[in-house]
Each structure stands twice: as C-alpha cells, then as structure tokens.
Amino acid sequence: MGAKQKKALKKNLKKVSSQLPVSSDRKDAADFLPLEGGPGRKLPEEKPLVNKAAVLYIGRIRHGFYEKEMHAFFSQFGTIKRLRIARNKKLRVLNTGKSKHFGFIEFNDPEVAEVVADAMHGYLLFEHILQVHLIPPEHVHLKLWRGFNCQYKPLDWVEVECKRLNKVRTLEEHKKLMEKILKHDQKRRKRIEAASIEYECPEIVGYVMPAPKKIKSKSSP
C-alpha cells in the first residue's frame, strides 16, 4: 500500500468517526462499530433467567412415609402448596392404594423448591437414598394434581385374611383344605429328617388323610 492510499484511508476513518454521535454516558455508548461504517450499534440487554420451577419429583420413598409424614418433613423448608404420592389403583380385585415409592411436591416459592432439590437429592432417609429433581413448568402434566386431596385409607389385611379363613365352607371344601395342610406337613417332616434334625413334629388332630389308591395292573390275556 502506497503513501497516498494510506493518507486517503486515514481521512476516511476520521470522516466516519466525526459522523458518529459522541455520548458522555457509558450506558449510551455503542458496543461495536459496523465494518462498513455508519452509526454504532448497541447489543440488546439480556435479562437474567428467572427460575419458575416449583414442582419437585421425590423418588425412592419408603412405605410408611406417607402424605402426613412427608408434609411434616418438607414443610420445614417452606410453605407447601400441594403434595401427592403415586399409589396403585388396583391390585388383583382389591383396591389397595399402596405407595409406588414416588411422589410430587409443589412449593409456593420456586427458590425454596430449588433449595430442597439441592439439599435432599441423595439424602439417606429410612435406609433409602432419595431422588429429588426439579420439574420444569412446561413438563408438568395437566392431570398431575388430579385427586391429590383424596385421603388414603389403608387396607386392613388382618381383617381380609380373617374373613378369608373364617368363611363358611362346605364339607368338600373343608376336606380339600385339610388335605392341603397335611401335604405341607409331610413335606416339612421330610425336610427335617433330611437335615438330620431330631425334632418330633406335633400331630394334626381332626383329620386322617386317606391312603393312596392302589392301581391294579391289567393282566395280559
């Protein structure tokens, strides 16, 4: 590049810079200048991302740690808006409502939910390591909180078994039941003898198991 070209380039730069608006305030100053000249441009201000996730997924919940216990435990962090434990709707014929070992909690304040996720993820609670994760608002299902206020009534298995064992049976049903009990008793006796354990099993009173029928062999003609 010759001397004349350098002088011409300097004049053009001075002319472009004189046309730019000069501001004493740094906030109004241009962030960058275009390559082809012209007024300076300012980058748009980036707004900080606001955390709006207030729903938590709680995994690996132990049996016995239900809605009442969870509410009492997690309310120490902040106000709980809604809480729900996923439960089985049907098991065979009975509506047991057993816990599926996971649930969801919604706090009033998203910042509290973030603190709970950081503090409780990997926390050892009743020999179970909790899995706690924030759920983004766009991933929260519309039917997630359907029926969360329903009160859970645990099924009394003792009462169910009592009804099953004390039901009125016919003579034939009672006979089959006793035969089944005696078969289990004979297997138990054989296992004890095979283990060379000296133990005298108590006799089952009230029923005598019939002797097995002998199959007659057919004589050849």
TrEMBL record:
Alphabetic keyword roster: Nucleus, RNA-binding
InterPro entries: Nucleotide-bd_a/b_plait_sf (IPR012677), RBD_domain_sf (IPR035979), RRM_dom (IPR000504)
Gene3D superfamilies: 3.30.70.330
Cellular localisation: Nucleus, Nucleolus
Region (Disordered): 1-24
Chain intervals with Basic residues compositional bias: 1-14
SMART domains: RRM
Residue span, RRM domain: 54-137
An example Gene Ontology CC term for this record: nucleolus
Molecular functions per Gene Ontology: RNA binding
One Pfam family it belongs to: RRM_1
SUPFAM superfamilies: RNA-binding domain, RBD (SSF54928)
PANTHER family (UniProt xref): MKI67 FHA DOMAIN-INTERACTING NUCLEOLAR PHOSPHOPROTEIN
Name of this protein: RRM domain-containing protein
Native organism: Citrus sinensis
